[in-house]
Amino acid sequence: MNSSNYLLTGDAVRLLDGRVAVVTGAAQGIGYEIARLFGSAGASVVIGDINADAARDAAERIAAFGGKATFLRCDVTAEDEVAALIAHCADSFGPPQIMVNNAGITRDATMRKMPLADFRTVLDVHLVGAWNGTRFAAAAMAEHGGGSIVNISSISGKVGNFGQTNYSAAKAGLIGLTKASAKELAKADIRVNAVQPGLIRTAMTEAMPQHAWDAKMAEIPMARAGEPVEVAQVVLFLASDMASYMTGAVLEVTGGRYM
Question: Most CB atoms closer than 10 Å: which of 53, 57, 194, 253?
Answer without folding.
Answer: 194
